[in-house]
Amino acid sequence: MKPFVYDYTHEQWKQWMSSHKQAEWRANQMMDWLYVKRVQSFDEMSNLPKTLRAELSEAFHFLPLDVITTQQSKDGTVKFLFGLHDGHAIETVIMRHQYGISVCVTTQVGCRIGCTFCASTLGGLKRNLTSGEIVAQVLKAQRFLDETDERVKSVVVMGSGEPFENYDETIRFIRIINDSRGLNIGQRHITVSTSGVVDNIYRFADEDWQVGLAISLHAPNQELRSNLMPINRRFPLAQLLDACWYYLERTGRRLTFEYALIGGKNDQLEHAHELGKLLQGMNCLVNLIPVNYVPERDYTRTSRNKIFDFKRVLDSYKISTTIRREQGHDIDAACGQLRAKHSQLS
Ligand code: SF4
Q1: CA dihedral 274, 196, 223, 301 (to 10 degrees)
Q2: Please, what are the domains in the chain?
Q3: Please, which contacts does 296-302 make with residues 24 or more away whose CB atoms are closer than 8 Å?
Q4: CA of residue 335 to ligand 1 center, whole Å
Q5: Binding residue ranges for [4Fe-4S] cluster
Q6: Where does the record place the Radical SAM core domain (predicted)?
Q7: Is the pTM of this model over 0.90?
Q8: How far is the CA of 117 from the centre of ligand 1 (A)?
Q9: Which of 38, 57, 60, 73 has a CA between 20 and 30 Å from the CA of residue 327?
């Protein structure tokens, strides 16, 4: 199958151009047409010779995404369900914050990790996305925002799928959106979240860049984490923490731990104390997330007061903690819900 135009980094465009007897600076023109002018066909690339445009359309597919549905929340959150060329569907979310607009992208169709609180994993993994299919999500979001003259400021790789099980495409995606000749999204404005694929946390720490890392932790001990997240049997908590310490020492950056509070499971004060002891001394931020209701899983939400009690315990261990503001409550905001609904209907 032909690659998508968005699959290529600037370096790959340079190589492609020189292998097609073109000057390397043509690669800059490609970046400009694709990511600055954001055209949607080769015909619009008016400063490229016609013969080159014909060669490009022989070699590449242009648009990998169709909009199936768009849901808009009263709080400004927008959730897209996109159709892929092979009939699969994926979700992408635009979120509005005080500090700007972020886009949450998906890296796989479905997921095989099996976290018990997550709708994305219910049908298992269908396939990995290419870097271009991930880039196209940001571009689609940007085109939507173009109508109101707004701009994507940050990108979080926290949608469906485990990015570190699709490592190479995720890394290439980051290089493409970070390129100053293109979308120019700063490395410090990009965060990747992993459920704990330990070997790739080491690789990520060695990438030598400023991209942020978040770990989906969700439990303070081996037994409970294995119950909630089967990946914890493959990569035990102690190994995960070793990798986190390596990341902190190697990068000097702060690490984020995501902790979804699930009523009666991991939200007791004893869990907060265990978590406090586990993370004490680390340069980290704990992000407490009131778990979204997933009809297929019988989980209850933690009350607001209990969330604040949990946070106070972490404060006592001098651990920076935030409580995630809930967004898109009036739409299918939990990751995987919209896609799950769509596949039941189709
Ligand atoms: S939370 Fe992330 S890693 Fe876990 S099953 Fe859902 S999509 Fe996969």
Answers
A1: 70
A2: 10-59 (1.10.150.530), 65-345 (3.20.20.70)
A3: 296/119, 296/122, 296/340, 297/116, 297/117, 299/117, 299/262, 299/263, 299/265, 300/262, 300/263, 300/264, 301/261, 301/263, 302/261, 302/262, 302/263, 302/267
A4: 9
A5: 111, 115, 118
A6: 97-330
A7: yes
A8: 8
A9: 38
